[in-house]
Amino acid sequence: MEFTVKEKAFFERIKKHRVNPMGASTNNPVPDYYGEKIGSVQGYRRWLRDQRAFNRKREGSYPGGI
């Protein structure tokens, strides 16, 4: 019972933080939209960084901008 509650909270968090796939392109694919590759807390943190980087790149406000 406790596991299912934690799992549901985790998936709600994934839904909240994932990127909008409408900004994807061939040169900028969506990074792990469903969080399938997350296997640890460290993996979750990397997933969050990847999501933020995708959003910054899509908006054009990243240091290596064009």
From TrEMBL:
It is a multi-pass membrane protein. It is found in: Mitochondrion inner membrane. Keywords: Membrane, Mitochondrion, Mitochondrion inner membrane, Protein transport, Transit peptide, Translocation, Transmembrane, Transmembrane helix, Transport. It comes from the Eukaryota. The keyword Transmembrane helix applies. Component of the PAM complex, a complex required for the translocation of transit peptide-containing proteins from the inner membrane into the mitochondrial matrix in an ATP-dependent manner. Belongs to the PAM17 family. PANTHER family: PRESEQUENCE TRANSLOCATED-ASSOCIATED MOTOR SUBUNIT PAM17, MITOCHONDRIAL. This is Presequence translocated-associated motor subunit PAM17. It comes from Knufia obscura.
